[in-house]
Amino acid sequence: MNGFEFIIAPLILFMIFVAPLWLILHYRSKKQVSQGLSEHEHRQLVDLADKAEKMAERIQTLESLLDAEAPQWRNKG
C-alpha cells in the first residue's frame, strides 16, 4: 500500500493544478490559431508576396539575358 500512497499525492496535485491550467492554455492557443492572421501579419504576407513576384520577374530577365549572352551558362556548375 506504501507505493500506492506515494503515487496518489502527486496524481491529485496534478489533477487539481496542472491539468486544468494545461487545458486552459491548450484551448486558448487553439482559439488564437483559428482566428487567422492579424492585420499586421496579413500586410507582411502581402508585402512578401509582392517582393517574391518582383524577384521572380528579375530572375526571368536575368536568365533571358544570360541565355542571349552565354547560351551554355546552365551547363556550367
Automatic annotation (TrEMBL):
InterPro entries: Phageshock_PspB. Pfam families: PspB. GO terms for biological process: phage shock; regulation of DNA-templated transcription. It comes from the Bacteria. Keywords: Membrane, Transmembrane, Transmembrane helix. The chain crosses the membrane at residues 6-25. This is Envelope stress response membrane protein PspB. It comes from Pseudoalteromonas ulvae. The lineage of its organism: Bacteria, Pseudomonadati, Pseudomonadota, Gammaproteobacteria, Alteromonadales.
